[in-house]
From TrEMBL:
Name of the protein described by the UniProt record: Putative Fe-S oxidoreductase
Annotated region (Disordered), positions in chain: 1-27
PANTHER family named among the record's database cross-references: PQQA PEPTIDE CYCLASE, RADICAL SAM DOMAIN PROTEIN
Lineage of the organism: Bacteria, Pseudomonadati, Myxococcota, Polyangia, Nannocystales
GO molecular function, one term: iron-sulfur cluster binding
Cofactor list: [4Fe-4S] cluster
Gene3D superfamilies: Aldolase class I (3.20.20.70)
Sorted UniProt keywords: Iron, Iron-sulfur, Metal-binding, S-adenosyl-L-methionine
Domain of life: Bacteria
Alphabetized SUPFAM superfamilies for the sequence: Radical SAM enzymes
Length: 311
């Protein structure tokens, strides 16, 4: 079946306003979540990286990290703190300072990583987060790693983590490497891990796949409409007009300390919540109605932030 790829339009729309009397949290099972960029630096330089090289640098100072950690550990209830980068393990403070301080709080700890850390670092991470690790989203980048090495590292992490920690392998459906992506998927699944494909993003939306490439994508992930509906792959759906609790029960915290309601809002220069270093973050009191024509990040949907999208 033909699948229309959404385009990120940049037409101006006013800053969405919180809806009155709709409750501070979704009235269905959900997981409050912060995606926290613990550093900008990455040790890879993938040709399809959505973060421009110019911004894929930098480490917050210890004081800036402490401001973020104070804010996170002060959030009421049990949130999931998903550490992102750059590459989180590129920060030498990750294991010496960040994770120990997070573990001292009450939240679940997750991470997005390219899994290039040493086996010693991975073992230490598993030990520090034991009993508190939520999800490891491991991104497999064929430009920088070999599949057997990647799987060996993931198996090591799984063997040292507690039993109910979850692991998922993400791969970009790189248009001119789809045969290799398909082969890698088979190896990942044969090793007992969940594999998750994502369409390649470019600055203003999605890469324009040809019809032939989309047939290859379909051969890898299955029926595209079904994958969109069940979110078994990131097909960058649209949730325009639905109630969304991002900014209230989900936010993105950047290495600068800036907090944003969601990544799409940020791209439209909307949904700014304040800065943790300046100590002025204000969460939204409730949901907004999504005004955006594409929702390319899976975390808000997967954590139950969006009306009609079950976790
Ligand atoms: S590992 Fe991730 S952040 Fe680093 S260059 Fe590749 S896509 Fe970008
Ligand atoms: S997370 Fe998705 S649904 Fe929610 S406001 Fe952002 S783009 Fe819209």
């Amino acid at each position: 079946m033909a699948h229309q790829l959404p385009i990120l339009t940049n037409t101006w729309s006013p800053e969405p306003q919180p809806l009155e009397d709709d409750g501070a949290a979704p009235p269905w099972p959900h997981q409050p979540t912060v995606e926290w960029q613990v550093c900008g630096q990455c040790n890879y330089d993938c040709s399809y990286c959505i973060q421009s090289k110019k911004y894929r640098v930098g480490y917050p100072t210890r004081d800036e990290l402490d401001a973020a950690l104070d804010f996170l550990n002060g959030l009421p209830g049990q949130w999931e703190v998903k550490m992102t980068g750059g590459e989180p393990f590129a920060s030498r403070l990750l294991l010496d300072h960040i994770v120990p301080r997070l573990v001292a709080g009450s939240h679940t700890i997750s991470t997005l990583t390219n899994l290039s850390a040493s086996t010693k670092q991975l073992q230490r991470f598993a030990a520090l987060t034991h009993g508190r690790l939520g999800i490891v989203s491991a991104s497999l980048h064929l430009e920088f790693t070999r599949v057997p090495d990647f799987i060996a590292r993931l198996e090591l992490l799984r063997d040292h983590a507690h039993a109910n920690a979850r692991f998922v392998v993400n791969m970009v459906l790189v248009p001119d490497r789809l045969a290799e992506v398909a082969a890698a998927k088979r190896e990942v699944e044969a090793a007992g891990f969940r594999w998750f494909g994502q369409l390649m993003k470019v600055k203003r939306g999605l890469h324009p796949y040809t019809a032939a490439q989309m047939r290859e994508v379909e051969a890898i992930i299955g029926d595209l409409e079904l994958a969109t509906r069940t979110r078994s792959a990131n097909m960058a759906p649209a949730y325009t007009g639905r109630r969304c609790w991002t900014g209230a029960r989900y936010l993105v915290l950047l290495q600068s300390g800036d907090a944003w309601a969601c990544r799409t809002a940020r791209r439209h220069d909307q949904g700014f919540l304040g800065n943790v270093v300046r100590g002025q973050v204000e969460l939204r009191p409730g949901p907004i109605r999504c005004p955006y024509s594409i929702c390319p990040c899976t975390v808000p949907a997967n954590r139950g932030m969006i009306e009609g999208v079950a976790r």
